[in-house]
Amino acid sequence: MSNSTVVIPTYWTWPSGEKERHTTASFDHPTPLDGEGTLPALLDDLSNQRNQRFEVLILAGLAHPELAERVSRQMRTLLEPYRKRLVIRICDAPAWANLSSSIGLTEVQSQLSHLGSYSGIRNLQLLVPHILESEIIIALDDDERVQPDYVDRALIYIGKTINDQKVLGLAGPYLQRDGSVQLKEPSATGNPFLDKSIYINKAMQSLCNGGSELKPTPLTLGGNMLFHREIFTKICFDPGITRGEDIDYLINARLRGIRWWFDANLTILHVPPHHYDTPAYQRTREDVFRFIYEREKLRLHGQTRPAWLEPYPSALLGDGMSAHALAALSAQVTPELAERFGNPEAIVEQARDHALRNAGHYFDYQSNWQKLMDRIEQDEHLRNELSDMIQSL
Q1: How big, in percent rounded to 5, are the helix, strand and coil portions of the chain?
Q2: pLDDT value for 325
Q3: CB-based contacts of 317: which residues, under 8 Å, 6+ apart?
Q4: Please, what sign has the CA dihedral across residues 255, 257, 262, 266?
Q5: What does the pLDDT read at residue 213?
Q6: Dihedral sign, CA of 42, 46, 47, 50?
Q7: Which DSSP helix (H) or strand (E) runs through 284?
Q8: 224 has which bridge partners?
Q9: Cβ-contact 393, 88 below 8 angstroms
Q10: How far is residue 127's CA from residue 372's CA, in Å, rounded to a whole number?
């Protein structure tokens, strides 16, 4: 078994000619089933890594369950040219159906891991490598490019002890198309939901300036994260979070006393396909749900705006966030968008209800995750049975 697994989620939606069909999952820029996608370029980069001591796991996220068989066929066609260049395993809907049936998941554990949401997919990103007995998970996204020494750079610090603390979680920056770590900033409005990129840039500037030493970080970017087994076997992604699951995981870790670190030299190039991008109103809606939920979960843990989340995401967790959310949505809404995603007042109210009803469930999710991961680790027969199901391409 490989010590390290590079995990790449992919996100699929209806073909472009069927784009008006219903979806059950909201992804930022899923690939239409008839589209080329961005995954092959990343696989080319991984094929050219100087360090080849890793396996690749591809996860096939679905915008609707009815896409399962079509996506499974598409994935195997897409990956066939890489069969002799990389050790590739696939967890698609048919594979996960077999795995979950053999594991015998509880109802709560089924809510934790699935292919229909960011958090569900991210938990599979942790669970499947655990079955394969990986020590380190390198989490990338399919719209990225990496240099030939990326894997070598990724493994420098993870698992090592820095200033008497073991590095169990590590993040690095995204480079934009122009080579900068900075996002494009709009003119400041005074509304943190509309000014989000300004706060992200402020945090990123602080993390990337001042030398090459690791720094504690308030943010992580989901497509450039490393997890040591001592963290991914203890902490799960929260199904209650609909977007921003990367920073939410950092928060979950910090609430357990585990610090997340940032390596400014661990860069990837981020090249999202903007022609598949989702409307700004939809993304703001997801942010409203996300940050209202996050504030409630922190409150349940006796926190409000902890210093370790400064300057971002702390800026979006302050007093008056509901009013800011309503104003941001109102600035972006059109009649068509309101018809598709709800009007601003309804969205804010739904976000409050979602947070109050669901944030407290994380305690139960965490307990069930620990039981699941312990069971897989302790039951060698089950682990071997499951591992045999995760065949290489």
Answers
A1: 50, 15, 40
A2: 97
A3: 291, 294, 295, 298, 304, 305, 309
A4: negative
A5: 86
A6: positive
A7: helix 280-300
A8: 140
A9: yes
A10: 9
Largest CA distance in the chain: 58
H or E segment and range at residue 151 = helix 150-154
Q: Residue 1: which pLDDT band, with cuts at 50, 70 and 90? A: very low
Phi, psi of 27 (to 5 degrees): -120, 150
Q: What is the pTM of this model?
A: 0.94
List the structure tokens of 175: 């480079």
Nearest CA to 65 out of 108, 117, 116, 5 is that of 116
Strand 165-166 and strand 215-216: pairing? unpaired
DSSP reduced 3-state for 377: helix
What pLDDT does 34 receive? 87
CB 109 within 8 A of CB 124: no
CB-CB neighbours of 133 under 10 Å: 16
> Please, which residues have CB within 8 angstroms of residue 285's CB and are 6 or more apart in sequence?
329, 341, 342, 347
**197-234: per-residue pLDDT in tens?**
999 999 999 999 977 789 999 999 999 999 999 999 99
Cα 151 to Cα 88: distance, rounded to the nearest angstrom: 16
Query: Alpha carbon 58 to chain centroid distance?
Result: 14
Tokens matching residue 325: 């959310």
pLDDT digits (tens, 9 = 90+) for 117-144: 999 999 999 999 999 999 999 999 999 9
Distance CA 34, CA 88 (A): 22
Which top CATH class is 4-277+362-385? alpha beta
Taking alpha carbons only, the member of 136, 132, 152 closest to residue 1 is 132
Quick check: 282 and 341 in contact, CB under 8 A? yes
Question: What letter represents residue 130's amino acid?
Answer: H
Candidates 28, 85, 35; CA nearest to 61 is: 28
Polymer length in residues for the chain: 393
